[in-house]
Write a structure and sequence with these properties.
179 residues; alpha+beta; 9-stranded antiparallel sheet; 23% helix; disordered N terminus
Length: 179
């Protein structure tokens, strides 16, 4: 883990957060989850992703072979298209079976920039990715890398989200691949 900066920024419309931005190397991950195809066209993703997230958040607890209770929401983008696949899943061991209706996603080992945010809704995620791609990466020594970007929801998020929802200001971590 290498620290590459500490910033103070407004990344949501309502929360000021000291956000530590770090360069991290993550090992390969095997995920099992659910996915939808959506698009930035007409703002479809702004409606479809939150609905998909809230309708499936607890279903992922049924996946056998999980190595933790964390969730990853992965953006499988095509840079030449506004259409993309949004995957929501859990980390699993090598023996985990893929339940009917679920899909597997493998994320290769990679270098990322990570930034913790307070998530109170879809716009917080949009603002964080926009900040990283339009401000932080261009002003750093890094470039945007290959591979999917994702949001990591760990136990801190789950506890707050289950108890009081977004009103409790649950933290999530954005990961964006870098070179």
């Amino acid at each position: 883990l290498v620290s590459v900066g500490l910033i103070s920024c407004l990344i949501t419309g309502c929360v000021t957060k000291e956000s530590k931005i770090e360069k991290v190397c993550l090992e390969k991950k095997r995920l099992i989850g659910l996915s939808i195809n959506t698009s930035f066209k007409g703002g479809r993703q702004a409606k479809e992703i939150p609905d998909f997230f809230h309708n499936n958040y607890y279903h992922l607890e049924d996946v056998q072979g999980r190595i933790n209770n964390n969730r990853l929401c992965v953006f499988l983008m095509n840079p030449k298209s506004p259409d993309f696949t949004y995957f929501m899943g859990v980390e699993v061991n090598d023996e985990a079976q893929i339940p009917e209706g679920y899909v597997e996603l493998l994320i290769d080992e990679n270098k990322y920039v990570s930034m913790e945010i307070i998530k109170q809704g879809n716009q917080d995620v949009v603002n964080a990715f926009k900040f990283l791609t339009e401000k932080w990466i261009p002003s750093s020594k890094f470039t945007q890398g290959q591979g999917p970007a994702f949001i990591y929801y760990d136990e801190r998020f789950h506890k707050i989200f289950k108890d009081v929802g977004y009103e409790g200001n649950p933290p999530a971590t954005i990961y964006m691949p870098i070179n």
